Amino acid sequence: MGLGRPIRIGEIDYANAWPLFHGLAQQGTCGNDSYELVAQVPSRLNGLLSEGKLDVAAISSFSYGQFSEQYRLLPGLSVGSVGKVHSILLFLKEPIHVTKPKKIALTSASATSVNLLKIIMALRFQCTPDYITTEPVLDEMLHHADAALLIGDPAIRASWLSHGLHMMDLGELWHDWTGLGMTYAVVAARRDMIDREPKLVRAVGSMLLETKRDNLSHVDDLIVHACARIGGSRPYWTTYFRSLQYDFDSRLQDGLSLYFKYARQLGLLQQETKIAFLEEQSAYKVNE
């Protein structure tokens, strides 16, 4: 057997996912097989994996909820936080305790964060604004809305500027409200790829775990890279990378399960979602 081509792996093109991917070549080898990295924003990776144009990818947690029957999660790999996330931010013209927004502009780059915001607005603040989806340019977003949601590197850059706006961190809001962590992205493999090449998929998982361990053991390298590529200060990036969680432990799994429950309650997801990992694949036949 064999693919006859590189296995295609989707990489989130934001600093928050660097610990999972930084240092990997765009083309390389994984065991005896070759791989190809495709770097995109989360919303684009979601579509590529669901369409079968990627085999394994870091995707929005919400997208896993949509297609969970088609995927299995690679264990020990995620992007989450227990408290502030620093890069999923709602910018408001007025504090929410003064004026609840009537219209919110949403980034087109996200799925998890967009629906996390809808959950928090509806169930925590009893607020049902109109939502519009736009390109992630803060000034343009706020030209059409009372508040704007940004994620990833655009959110980080916007947080450094003095806009005269009120800023809310969705990771902090979620944790203060539920007491749980939140997982924004997971690493999923298509079940048809697992059926066809289970050893190769496991090898990809092992490669990413090793990359994560190496990067988290050398966070200073990530900090230097972030300062050079995005800007900002060493203290900022030190706090940033230390705030994020990458192991997908029980706190994060519990938080994500609650997120899926609320998303189903609000009709954002059409079915219940079970968190299922690659090790649980024994129930499915592997083609020989």
Automatic annotation (TrEMBL):
Pathway: Quinol/quinone metabolism; menaquinone biosynthesis
Reaction(s) this enzyme catalyzes, per UniProt: chorismate = 3-[(1-carboxyvinyl)-oxy]benzoate + H2O
CDD domains: PBP2_Sco4506 (cd13634)
EC number: 4.2.1.151
Domain of life: Bacteria
Matches recorded under SUPFAM superfamilies: Periplasmic binding protein-like II (SSF53850)
Pfam family, one: VitK2_biosynth
Record key words, sorted: Lyase, Menaquinone biosynthesis
InterPro entries according to UniProt: Menaquinone_biosynth, MqnA
Function description: Catalyzes the dehydration of chorismate into 3-[(1-carboxyvinyl)oxy]benzoate, a step in the biosynthesis of menaquinone (MK, vitamin K2).
Family indicated by similarity: Belongs to the MqnA/MqnD family. MqnA subfamily.
Record-linked PANTHER family: CHORISMATE DEHYDRATASE
Name of the featured protein: Chorismate dehydratase
Gene that encodes it: mqnA
